[in-house]
Queue: 3 jobs
Job 1
Amino acid sequence: MGWMADETGLGRNAANFVPLTPLSFLARAGDVFADQTAVVYRGTRRTYAEYRARVSRLASALTARGVQPGDVVATLLPNIPAQAEAHFGIPAAGAVLNTINTRLDTDTIAYIFGHGQAKIALVDTALLPLAEAAIAEMDGPGPEIIEVADREAGFAPSGRYTEYEALLKQGDPDAPWIMPQDEWESLSLNYTSGTTGRPKGVVYHHRGAYLLAMGTAVTWAVGIRPVYLTIVPLFHCNGWCHTWMLPAVGGTLVCCRDVTAKNIYDAIADEGVTHMGGAPIVLNSIINAKDADRRPFDHVVEVYTAGAPPPAATLAAIEPLGFRVTQVYGLTETYGHVTECLWHGRWDGLAQAERASIKARTGVLMPFMEDITVHDETGNPVPRDGKTVGEIAIRGNSVMKGYYKNPEATAEAFKGGFFRSGDIAFQHEDGYIKITDRAKDIIISGGENVSSVEVEGALMHHPAVSLCSVVAKPDDKWGEVPCAFVELKEGRTADEAELIAFARERLAGFKTPKRVVFCELPKTSTGKVQKFELRARAKEL
């Protein structure tokens, strides 16, 4: 039987088992890195002791305002210190963090407020009109607004709501945190980009965020005290969990409200930024920066890029500027990145074009994940031959709990014991995955998912439009932009500017078509629009 057969008295207890949570990173850092710089934003600099105390104030003030464990607290904030504090303070009150995409339209935000049942929303002064309009559209009561006035960016409080700093003054800097009793407890609620109708609420647990944060620190080799620039919006997969990771290694979070090449270069030169993430559009802005916006620096900046496969030409152009880029891939449903294009020494001697081509691969699974493979329609792995395509299937600790209040969609997503990504790829002989297309005709513009179905739905409301189809058009700046092909009703007229303006009234700016082409749409014998043909046309435009 062996000695393992008798494990009497070897059970879990308070001494040997503590539920995993990223909250523990900051609880520790407040002591271990007490006087180290934790957060930098323009003229603001805070130590880890101050960071932890402010998080305690936020958690206890929310509790005093009636927030109970399991309640949802939303944020509509850019990447400013309050958004980072919310990542710890809201869960430290036992609540669920719901960071909302600040680029969404009022209708979608109203839906998210209602579906998530947010009790309180922390809202940036500049975004108050958006939050107010969304709440006005709701059937029931909306969340209570706490105004976050970003004085560093010139936003004075409106005076209409309790202001964030006043809220913190009501809190206790030494208040104990409500830590999870079970690491499967919900930590955050992130809404997808709504690529097939309404956005779905993706639920993260404490365990998954802890493990992704730890795994990223290991595989990205961030070391101790890295300086990280927040370019990835904290409303995207909670900034790929990087804000939760940084206290584990005593890193400095440099907040960036407005992502411009100048601000990126300034942060690298002035704050010594060592790590950052961003979509390929961010890489392009660095490559194409004006000379006046560039600053010299004498170290290599490590960059994770995701959101769309970066063109090999982009990777080739940015590396000589002092950036080492690694492509990563993931989805809202996987807490951010779960694969990385891990570099092997055997590729060092290759010509730059070949190296860029390898770096443009999607990559292999990260160490906290269990399995990432490409499946055919029957759920079996496709051959690793570099050409047979299938759907990326994912299994591991950083896969969501499921979709909030949507058991049918959850069951569909987890069919066969894997998360079905909807992304089409092939696998190389060495296991590296390469995405070839997005299922469901998703357009990825500047790292944001755009549903062609949603854009088509908006355009179809125009009285002159008989039929329309929206596809991705390649774009130097944004990677892809929506391009609409439109058939008009007989006897009706409309021009491109009119339809773009019409769509803009109904959609977020990044979802609005940048080109409208009038033509008869190519169709199959059953009347289905042939989108592949339209994609080819869009490429020629």
Note: The chain has a mean pLDDT of 93.
Job 2
Amino acid sequence: MLKGFFSVSSWIMLSRLLGLVRDQLLAAFLGVGPLQDAFQVAFRLPNMFRRLFGEGAFNAAFVPLFSTILKKEGKESAHLFARQSLTMLLLCLGIFCCLGEIFMPGVIQIIAPGFGSDNGRFGYAVQLSRITFPYLVLICAAALVSGVLNSLHYFSIAAAAYVSFNVVGIFALVSLSPYVGGVAMAAAWGVTFSGVIQLGILLFAVQRAAMPLWPTLPVLNEKLKTLFRKMMPGLIGSGITQLNLTVDTIIATLLPTGSVSYMYFADRINQLPLGVLGAAAGTTLLPLLTQELAQNNTKQALQTQNTAMLYAMGLTLPACTGLIFLAFPIMAVLFQHGAFSVNAALLASHSLQAYALGLPAFVMIKVLSPAFFARGDTATPVKVGMATLALNLILNLLFMRPLAHVGPPLASSLAAWGNSFILAGILLRKNHLTPDKPFLRKLGLMAAASLAMGIVLFILSYETATLFKTGHSLLRATLLGGMIAIGALLYGIILQWAGVIKIQTFYKKVVNKVKKR
């Protein structure tokens, strides 16, 4: 599992870093204003589908079924099931996409009610959304192909394909703007073009894996009915984080112009560790748990889950601390260029701090959900998810006026903590989660090391605040890099001293692997 975890996380990290470059270009070219707000709303709907399908929810239903058929009925039966699933998925989403294109003004009124009084933002959002909407068909098909590759233990290529999303996006921003009517239009076309490239890469990879996926005649047999029954609640259960973020966006459109943009750029930074750690853990954990439980190896399944939680929390806790105490330096270094002002960076940093408070909870949801899905239980995460979705909406309504652009991120974080605590409590009650003393000891030491690191980072960021507001971009980047290095070194030293990690052992493994290659 560790090999798959780091393989997937490495590709996702590369994708996220390229995503930052893409967002920097958006911030520099468009700044914070009506056009930026309109593009972010146009991007939200297909992007939600990308995260729902590409990072867990579709796999939660498809992978266990495909893996079980592959193990019990053989490769030929599993291959046919995958092709039939792809056909039905394309048929259903193709119809849905056509309806969306026709009724897009009504869709925008639902997901961006605040744009109704602003004809400029509303018109832009409708136009851009019609360009980006076909991406959801392409990325959902890509998610199915990725699920096949993951089930066959080809983790790397499935994760690598998503790098093309940001590569194409960067190319579109830099090259297409003069030909398609501006930066926002170029960014929208880049989203859809990237879907074509991603799906093409994955189809080529699955063909190389001796399981080519081409559509068949539409058929709705018992296996497909089972898939769709499990998929629908799985979408809600596994994707509740994305639904909460969508609620945040809806509320943000009712706030002053620029709020959607502040929250978007803050969320993009928060998504870097969340996507790398949460998605990687969920992607690699689900197939392993499914196989171990299918073999009645319950003890190993519980140990696998504990190990995944420690890997995830060992990296998430310091990331959470760093984002909270270095929020403004991070926003200043990454986005304080061109049309993106110092004040915009400061306001966006407040949203980032609110999102970062819930980062460990967001990741834990990704790690805990496979424990339900691997056992065929998609109902429980749905019930918990709907309850926390309602909580998020209530908190949003309470926070939106007094806290403005900080309210929705804070509401989302608190709802995520509620979601993770309830999921963990249910698993504990059913003995599907057994944190032993070594696990709790290591987790406690990780939290203490993160707190110590946070104190040091707070002092450093306080003393250098003026330099991040007025200093040269190279100076800001150097200072931020130095503070991150100091925090990471302190965290590592504390865990090494406490015996939680053994850097020498890890170093030897890396060296040996490099020598073998």
Note: Residues 2-435 form one domain.
Job 3
Amino acid sequence: MSKHVVVIGAVALGPKAACRFKRLEPHSKVTLIDQCPRISYGGCGIPYFVSGEVNSVTELQSTPYHIIRDAEFFRTNKDVDVLTETRATRIDRAAKTVEILNVATGKTDTLHYDKLVLAMGSKANLPPFAGMDLKGITPATNLEEAEMLRDAAASGSVDKCVIVGAGFIGLEMAVAFADMWGIETTVIELQDQVLPGFLSKSMAQMALHDLEDKGVTVLLGESVKAFEGEDGTVTRVVTNKRTIEADLVVLSAGVSPNTALAREAGIDCDTRGAIIVNEFMQTNDPDIYSGGDCVTIPHLVTGKPGYFPLGSMANRQGRVIGTNLADGKATFPGAVGGWVVKLFEQSACGAGLTIESALKEGYDAISVHVEQFDRAHFFPEKALMSLELVVDKPTRRVLGIQGMSELGDALTARINAVVPLLKAHATVDEVSNLEVVYSPPFASAMDIVNAVANVTENVLEGRNHMVSPSQFATLWANRDAEDIFFIDTRLAPNAVPYVEKYPDAWHSIPNEEIRNRIAEIPAGKSVVVVCNTGLRSYEAMLLLNELGVKDVKSAAGGMVAQKKLGSGI
């Protein structure tokens, strides 16, 4: 029996659900509505259009075969009716109708549905700052705003740009303006780190260094109070600490579910406003489905409700909804929140919990940091990758993984390999023995994803006593107040510059000489050993323990991690 499916929202989830359903029930009718003139585009590509890496905004709307996904495309190629510049104003669940308004003409109408899909996405958080109505301030959430930003940057009229928020979009926009257009760029973040909630503080410091090393000013722990302007255009951003000149402001202070229409119709939502759905993506009304940025789904690490406003999530959920509109039984059990962001020299990627979020959730957790080449050390093309594993100590269960690398595709391969294990509540032992394809141009014989688990096992079993990269940097910065003996265990030529710079504090004792020089290590002092990446220092720690020096800690990630942190050692 044919149906009429109405889909509200036509960016990511909506078109995917509509097209999947039409493939399964070609004789049924689908009406797709959206209040914007342009639909079905890759919103996550907006920063790369602004930067110029994506040449034309139409590329964000195009299929892989370079056909623009406009209303005519859906009618001709998908047999889906599309109403653009059309806003849904009310849902009557009892009558199974949607009232609509054409925002261009003011004409109203009513659509009857058998099944309804709510795909309204999210809306940018717009705090009530004074001056929000000034020109030149935008959240950059649609193609029209993207074109405005690109045109402004390309015109040469923008010398100073301020980004409010150091999340994914905020940092991608900062890179776009600073790297591609040479615009003086400042990022303001209320929290005390970039990518809060997604990177540990140690790794966030690495991301911060990557940004600052390329000239981006990042102001942490600072809040915007107001915008000021002249002739109706923004010229200044006022924070709780200073006033910053600005020709352009991008608001990237997060998003919230765009669900007012659903709440007014009596659809169950959580305290955040996200629609509550079951594993079939159904709301409390079995004839109404929702997904993407609108909904809350289980966090598969914590088991609690999660919110994952990601384009990839919306597309996968759209396919599930399309199947179930055709009386299927597809399920979407939840997510672990995998993500990736490209910065300047580095890319950052992760899934699951950081050490800070794990502790906040009540886990007795530890994190372990490793630096290792992403492929065989003897292969000419390689990069040192940072990985951090988060593990629950009592159960050895892996709770999360994050990383940084110059080669983002190599990094995402490692994170993606661990994602299924997070969903399965796997232990560190399973990561240690994870089968990873090997050939020198692609990986090491003992891959870094295995290595970080191996090191974690040693920590859990008391064989490896580590300080994190940020802890080492703090200990070194406070060395005059700390009773610590620092030993560089690398071969002497590597240590000489540091011994010359810090003659009274930096001591060079290579691994090969420890047995013969054990008397040089003062009794009663704590010892911290450091090498290039952490491998030699671990071996030095074991040897020192064997020789009777018990209070020894190894610097995780070694000098490579310190360089990435920008610690200045």
Note: The first strand starts at residue 4 and ends at 8.
